Amino acid sequence: MESKNIFMNLPTIETERLLLRKITLEDAQDMFQYGSDAEVSRHVTWDAHQTLEDTKEFIQIVLTKYENGDLAPWGIVLKETNQLIGTIDFVSWQTNHKTAEIGYVISKIYWGQGITTEASKAILNYGFTKMDLVRIQARCFVENVGSEGVMKKLRMKYEGTVRKAMFAKGKHRDLKVYAVLKEDFKVKNNL
């Protein structure tokens, strides 16, 4: 399966509390609310948004990715309020190896409520059932205990720490790597 088949027509995925859907320019204010938070951006590769225009420029890049069928994020929308509170995506996809990596970010207001885990579980399920993946991994800076906690809740296995694997925010970063295999995910989630 090619990314164009999925990401040009990114499907909406519904969970108990969330809608995972395409991002639109109408989401700019919601995204700026968490994207401008230095604490939220501390553990990701991008810098905090300084202006609403920064957020709109990012959204425009995402819209172009949808148009081109490139890997692009789902917006995480809280059904109760219809507010965009984060994003989740496949940050890489090796179709010939049937492997991918997920990444996510969520508003600090919603940390510790299981929302990222709920969204991630839905994306893992999508990857294994619709993208024919056999392995999905996630990585985080070693000090990002929140993200590591999500990976553990997803029952991903810790595979090791890759030293100085990424240059981000002015320095080389060590990354913890977690992964789950299709057969393990199915058994653990009764699929």
Task: Describe the secondary structure blueprint for this structure.
Layout: H1 3-7, E1 13-14, E2 18-21, H2 28-35, H3 38-41, H4 52-68, E3 74-78, E4 83-94, E5 99-106, H5 115-130, E6 135-141, H6 145-153, E7 157-168, E8 171-181, H7 182-188
Parallel strand pairs: 5-6
Antiparallel strand pairs: 1-2, 2-3, 3-4, 4-5, 6-8, 7-8
Helix pairs in contact: 2-4
Q: Care to describe what's here?
A:
With 191 residues, the chain is an alpha+beta fold. The protein contains seven helices and eight strands, in the order H-E-E-H-H-H-E-E-E-H-E-H-E-E-H. It has helices spanning 3-7, 28-35, 38-41, 52-68, 115-130, 145-153, 182-188, and strands at 13-14, 18-21, 74-78, 83-94, 99-106, 135-141, 157-168, 171-181. The chain has an eight-stranded mixed sheet, with helices on both faces. Helix 2 crosses helix 4 (52-68).
Short description:
This protein has seven helices and eight strands, in the order H-E-E-H-H-H-E-E-E-H-E-H-E-E-H.
